[in-house]
## 1
Amino acid sequence: MSRTIAIASGKGGTGKSMVAINLAASLAHAGENVVLLDMSFGMRSLELYLGMEYKALWDICDVINGVCDIDTAVLPVDSVKGMSLLPGTQKCEYPELTADSLSAIIEALSERFSYIILDCPPGAGYPVECAIECTDLAVIVLTADYVALRDAEVIEEMLLRSGVMDRRYVINMVSSELKEKDAGISISEIDRGLRCRPLGMIPMDYNIRASLAEGVPIVAKRDSYIADNFRNMAVRLIRK
Ligand SMILES: Nc1ncnc2c1ncn2[C@@H]1O[C@H](COP(=O)(O)OP(=O)(O)OP(=O)(O)O)[C@@H](O)[C@H]1O
Ligand SMILES: [Mg+2]
């Protein structure tokens, strides 16, 4: 049976796409067949972060509209065996997207993939609502600051209203300096604010940014200590 995981945050730029890519790659390294869906309608990014901009000819809207079939649009990710991408659309209007059309795509993908990862856009708009309606599990990605926590709480409310009981959070861009300078909040404050369990933490690391710019997930690189963080997260998800 396949599982759908929505990655959301509310606040923009917390690292949702970075977590979605590296979690997907870690699940694939663990032997799972994983597909990543770019839900950022109008402002896609995953095909760039995966170095596939020249291959991404068809997108999620083309599939919803029946312009091409799903197997044509879904592309294997060269750098990670077992990982595929359904590119997002650059079109800013997406009347075709509904929870029903997304759930039909998920159902079709579940025949080929054991994990379907929905990389949500920032905010709490319609694509996020649709993703939340269709998901089994949610990973909330936040940074250690008050705005990110407040937005994460909004997303968690939406998940609760939608009956998504399996929720985890990831704290990204963790840096001891931030806390020392009193610009951030503590992990226990985050834990008190959210009503879900932690999945893991990712440090602030320039190499993560560089790997996205290069188009290769950091977990696919040799000797990356960050791969251990993501491997542990993947194991926690698989064991659940
Ligand atoms: N742990 C990290 N250390 C350093 N840089 C990071 C880290 N995580 C993400 N970044 C960088 O932060 C920026 C935002 O990351 P990303 O695009 O994954 O965020 P996002 O939440 O998906 O953004 P959006 O809300 O626009 O979809 C990128 O430039 C990325 O390289
Ligand atoms: Mg993103």
Note: The pocket of magnesium ion (ligand 2) is lined by residues 16-17, 40, 45, 119 (CB under 6 Å).
## 2
Amino acid sequence: MDPRGLEFLDEETPRIIMFCGKGGVGKTTCASTTAVHFALKGYRTLLISTDPAPSLSDMLELDVGGAITPIPSVPGLEVVELDYDDVVEKWKEKFGAEVYELISAFLPVDEDIIEYVAGAPGIDEEFALSYVYDLYVGGGYDVIVWDTAPAGGTLNLLKIEETFYVHLGEAAKMYVRVRSALDALTQGRAKRDPLKIIGEWEQLAKNVLDMMKDDGTRAFLVTIPEALGVNQTQRVADDLRRFGIRVGGVVINHVLTEEAADSDFNRARRAMQLRHVEELEKTYGGTMPVVQLPLQPYEVRGVETLKKVEKILFPEPT
Ligand SMILES: Nc1ncnc2c1ncn2[C@@H]1O[C@H](COP(=O)(O)OP(=O)(O)OP(=O)(O)O)[C@@H](O)[C@H]1O
Ligand SMILES: [Mg+2]
């Protein structure tokens, strides 16, 4: 039977459910609704946003902030929005000492180098992913629902992670080649073997990439039935495949229902939308579920509204 919504996720619930797509198509709506759904079903659920312009707080009408916050009206649901300043602070706490150890093994530097490295491009993204990884392996959650940054954003995180991984491998090889010269230069200043530190970082990057490729991780493409959305969806789908991330389905949001198409204006709009719905079904329908989320007459805000949308996105099997 064709799914009407995402109810098929109840049968085989992924450990990580990501929502990806272009700006404003409804990623936060789908992610929040899905997280509410699984929490209501009794799963320990974490809703996380790595969007640098986060909107979970607005959607939940709560000040979530950079700390993991329980949602009192939905037992079992916790929410966190990564605050990127906070991310850099946490990165320094976690890796600062290692960075200093590593670099001071090569060069006569003082601890200011930590600040410098912490400000380097990609470090916040790198940490955002290792933060998700820690929560994933921590075992505290049955399901992690991930509200990602628009379109390229999250995949950039992965590109950086992949680059980082490759570079670490290169760094280790380079270090081996120059090791004896460096040892003479630094006269054994390093407290720990730099190769070990590089190796640990490399392992962490690999773990993150493996988590994304895991069979228990599913990305959903969220789009609107318009050409811009459809084209962007294709690009995001291609990128996800390139990283070996499994795509679990497509959600076409903002669809005007037949009842809603009650004026010439709305009938014309619905006809336009249906052409794109058909195109999406033709492209993806053969390999994955393609479901629709109708446009609602209300704004999606607050937990009570999310519970209403939950009934639409996760209809009871008939
Ligand atoms: N099916 C729907 N019916 C009515 N309103 C909707 C629906 N889906 C989303 N919205 C509204 O559309 C707006 C954008 O949705 P949302 O914030 O989920 O998109 P997004 O993809 O997360 O955006 P961004 O890329 O900015 O993070 C919100 O104001 C939300 O309330
Ligand atoms: Mg959003």
Note: Residues 152-186 form the longest helix (35 residues).
